Amino acid sequence: MGSLVLKKRDFSRDDTSFESLRKEGIRLIQELSGGVWTDYNLHDPGVTMLEHLCYGITDLVHRTGFPTVDYFTGEEGFVPEAVGMFSPEAILPCGPVTGDDLRKHLFDRLEGVENVWVEALFPGLWRILLRAAPGVDAAYLMAEATDVYHAVRNLGEDLLEVVVLTEDPYTLEAEMELDGSRSPSVVMAEIYHVCNGLLAPGIRPESHQAMLEEEVELATVFHGPLTRHGILSRLGRSSVVERVAVTEVIGAVRKVEGVVSVKKLCFFKGGLRHFVCIQRENKGSVLSLAIPGHDSDNRVALFLEGKRLAVDIDQFKGLYSALEFGGRRPVPHDPASLYTLPEATFRDFGEYTSIQDHFPNVYGINAFGVPPSYPEERKAAARQLKGYLALMEQFLADGMATLDAMPDLFSPEPAVRRTRFGRFLDSGHISGMDGLRTKKEPEAAHRALMKKYDAFHRRRNGFLTHLLALYGETVEKEPLRRDGSYFSDTALDEALIQVRIALLKRLPEISAHRFRGSRPGHRVEGERNIPPFQMKCEILLGFYHHKHDSLTQAITRDSLELVSDEHYLGLHAGTLAADLDADGSGHMAPISPAPKEPRLTCGAVRELMVSIVPFRHNLLFDSLLRGGGQLNRYRLVHLSDCDDVQIAFHMGDTWVYLGSTRTIWRAAHLVHLLRRYLMYINMATEGMHVVEHLLLRPRSFGTDPETPPDGFYVHGISILFPAWTDRFASDVFREITMEMVAGQLPVHLQPSFHFLSFDEMQHFETLWTRWQDAAAGGDESRRDELADALKTLLQSR
Questions:
Q1: What is the CATH code of the structural domain delimited by 96-161?
Q2: What pTM value is reported for the model?
């Protein structure tokens, strides 16, 4: 099977020019009416009308030839987000993934550090090592680094500890011969800068603007984590310097401009001189170079032709600080300053001028019209021609209105409810047009006509699919399918629109931080603390309506208890419709679909709580929840010896009595209201919980390198779903869900899926909430106790 290729337009053959359109029009006229028309000369009125129509078409063609950005530009200018596009800084960077990424992010966000190192310990655990800047409080820096890490923590990873390294200073002792080309203070400052770069190298960002001036591509500038203080392309050694050979230092010093020879060089500490190498004393320290503050502290002697040179210590310290710290952390930049949006011009593409205004006055159809003295027959002919041409012009005006509505066509806003646009032509556009119309409300009729032929759901889904495809994302129908009696095909298409809009609007966060985990113990009112991957899965599965984390709250909030069918029948064995009427079927009437679904308000819910028998007992049984949205499972029962109309629900092999009212109308209203409520409960209790096993580890986990880690905590993640809703009762839907969720996870994580009953989910959510509270409060013993209970629950499934 050959590949499908879209052919490009051949611009060497312009078939939309005036001459081409005129030629094609005459050819078609000759085919249709060649035997009855004239010789097609310029004076022929038919040719005149053809030429004016061709002129109108060329105007429309001309309006399609502007730069693409002009079609998405409003009076406020070009706003990429308004048409489903994103700025480079929003869509190109990503969260830290590798150790180098994490170093970049930490150095960029922590103001008080000279260098950052990260160590990967047991699978998923990190240790952060910091060298603090002079005068920075170590405790404050550790807390800040912990917060910065947890804000970008990846799934299945965690922070074991943050260590602020202590200084292990060595004094430089040397004798050097200079050539006299540079000031001794300048040479000495550069010598110390070179030596310090070997003992305790710092991270040196490059400014973003400098990178652009070197013509580095924008994608390279925004590669990896988004940094505010420059591009960290040269991070230096990935670990702390353990030892430095003195010969390496001598070789580096000899390269300093102005140094002729190094007669002697060693490092002095604690009364000992080190001529071979120096090394840090312990894992909690970092090598450093003692900088002389006074002349008496200086052990570096500089000579010129055997004569010792004087060094201005204050000048030296200023020059050294400029070399060592100048430009270490460029000022924060605005990412938008690194690029320019395409130049755009606002154009009113929908502006329309009638071609009838360009006809010669003799036709009587332009603004001058037919003189009043002309006979009525002549005026009627002009009106007839005007109406004939207006039909052609309506197509032109609608085409221009479509161009003008391009921002709406690609808008990610839910308020957009049409994809076909038109321009209503009145007397303001065509002289005397209002007098030709016969309908009372012609503009409303025009809108209705446009709506009738607007395949809104198909076209809207098509535009949104195109926008998502720009970023490599798709939305499949299958996870959103529900029972056909719950939702029509139109409702499914509407759900697809809402899902695609939700995904598109959250795409920058989902894309850049797709593998980021939640923040343990982080609580913000009105904000869900969930990983972006979970956010994406909830959108793709149709859980985008969730506003909170609890999956049981929608039922317990109305004081209901979900019970099995058997349990409910055991409690209410005398309330079956079959007991009220042995024959039953002769008196049962199906319920017609509602012309308009009732609104589910707080008052409507209270009405249900007092009218439906199970709700009056604070009960909701399984089959009512799962099948209560299906209208064909309800019947109205009107017994001959009773005035009440009873509501029956089909539970497997029997009919269950749900309540009764005085009228058939009210009984049907209650059924439709009950359906809406049960459909809401199904959707409101659908969702997922994500538990990263590593976060449940004991506080001692990973501190002893001799003890092998518990396999439960390594690369493990549990995904919990409700088992009680209509969709999750289906094995097919469960398989689709597990496959989709697993496809969104990093490949090194091993997911385990759990489908919990309502009681099990309540128990889990209680433990999970308490564990999060303990983590937020810093109660380590309580946190470990609850983590162990969660581990037991997950392993028992």
A1: 3.30.300.30
A2: 0.84
